[in-house]
Amino acid sequence: MKKNGKYFVAPQQSDDNFKVLFARLAAEGAGRSVDSKGFADGPWTAETLTQAICELDGNTKGIDLRSVQVWFQANDNGIGTENIRWLARIFGCDDPEETSRWAAEIRASKDRLTAERRAKKSDVGSSGPMQAQHAVDYDISLENTFLPSYTFVASPPVPDTKPTVSGISLALRCEQMFSGPNHLIMPIAIWGGLGILWFLTIILGVHSVTYSPSEGIEKQVGFIWSPGWNLGEPIFLPILLILCGSLINAWKESDRGRLLDYGRIKFEENWYAKVRSFTSSFWAIFLICFFLIFIVQWAGVYLLPLQADDPNVPMIDWMLIALVRPDVLSNNAAIFVSFLGFLYSGMIYWFLFSASLFLFTVSGDYAAICSEKDDSHIPLYNGHAFNIGLKIMQTVFRCTVLGILVALCIKMNAAYLVSDAEGITAWLWNDALIFLGYSNDRWLWINGSPSPFFTSFLLLFLLCFVFAACLVQVKTGIDNTVLFAQEESRAMRTWFRMGAVVLILSMGYITIGQFYGFSLLLGVSVTVAVASLFWRFEPHKTVPEGKGT
């Protein structure tokens, strides 16, 4: 039966307890979307059901994945009163009448489960005081240690304001892009967009094109010779996004719950609520990328000069070649292809900035959970806390290195375009020979000042800032756990190694075009950075085998 586009199963008023009732409905996919033939698109899983409940209109506090996982487990734990209404809305397909009927059905099944649990305890109690005491102790340990309950405190509603789905779910939409199999969509979008630009530039004849900035010089500015378009964005950025998505999946599906379990921590804020708290930041990123980076920069740097047919621009690239080579590319074609190119750039920066925000979010969530840890020494928890913090920081470090490599490619391409060199590889090779004394052919700036460096510098600053902020949060989280002296020393050495690589790579970025011989320092810094991506950091050795992160 179909209702509101969902697969509806009517309440049957059976005598099943909550566990039996929920297992049957979850297997049937009650409340899930239907396919073209009217069947549910599959059974519920803990992850899909959690996501569906968090996306319900009006559910501003969400629900923890671990709470939903309890419903799927074969135990005597039922469902909280507050969560009955959300589950009823799922099974009732968000229909008010059916939701009310399902709420009554779920409540009755919960009461039957409670009665059965009490009967079991009574049977255990009649078998002897000592056995009853052990049973009660075990039940309390199970409930408070491994399956803690959560109490959510809703934020006071804004008067006369109804939460909108778009205002609440933008952060979750971004989270979905990085979660599960969906995190491969972003690399595919990057490669697909680049493929479109490749075909367009080949068709238009600007994939390999030169112009003469001065007499005797033929400068190559073709699309395929740009390291920013063909090295940083299609190689380094997809790896960054895949690493970030893997960290988010590991954190929300296993690492976060393991920290709460082993630390015996009751933490009120669930992962989806944490993501929601950054909704305004995700909106700011979206507007900056698609308004400032895309619209404003495209209009100011490309649209206006092309419309005015003004060749006096600071930098000529494969899109602005129409100003100096109208025989190769017309102004109208240049406006069209530059529009697509900057739309693609806006998407690229949106992915990159969103990934940086998620790295910050995971690090902050880790630090917040560790701050709830009491002063008791739990070796298993301490080992897992150290390993999880190390995993988070290792991913942050690798993403930072990859992001700086992207910024480095952008700046290197911009520096080459405002130099008088004829080719980018020849420029770097000749710069090294000048420093070593094997060449006297010194390169110069065409316009006297490398002004296009500002955008990539802002990207470098953002990446270093996020790295430092994540490092502080992860270090704070680890410091809140009890570690042996050698573990603290090893952690400090790890932070130092990471910071040193980021500093060396940043220096390589800053020195591009600043003096003759910069290419040698650039080569050393890039070599160190690429090698650091393969570092393996030693985990905490007190974690039992098979239970490490």
How are helices and strands ordered from N to C? Answer: EEHHHHHHHHEEHHHHHHHHH
Strand order of the largest sheet: 1-2
Shape: flat
Structural class of the secondary structure composition?
A: mainly alpha
Report low-confidence residues grouped into runs of 5 or more: 129-168, 542-549
**Total number of β-strand segments?**
4
- Distance between termini? 44 Å
Quick one: biggest sheet? Answer: 2 strands, antiparallel
Could you tell me the mean pLDDT? 81
Helix amount, in percent?
A: 55-70%
What is the CA-atom radius of gyration, in angstroms?
29 Å
Question: How much of the polypeptide forms β-strand, as a percent range?
Answer: under 5%
What is the overall number of helices? 17
What does this structure look like?
The chain has 549 residues and is mostly helical. Helices cover 64% and strands 1% of the residues. It is built from 17 helices and 4 strands. It has helices at residues 18-28, 46-54, 65-72, 81-91, 96-126, 129-146, 165-177, 185-204, 227-263, 271-276, 279-308, 331-371, 379-417, 424-436, 454-479, 485-510, 518-532, and strands spanning 2-3, 6-7, 210-211, 219-220. The strands form 2 sheets. Strands 1-2 form a two-stranded antiparallel ribbon. Strands 3-4 form a two-stranded antiparallel ribbon. A hairpin with a 2-residue loop joins β1 and β2 (6-7). α1 (18-28) crosses α5 (96-126), α9 (227-263) runs antiparallel to α13 (379-417) and α13 runs antiparallel to α15. The relative contact order is 0.08.
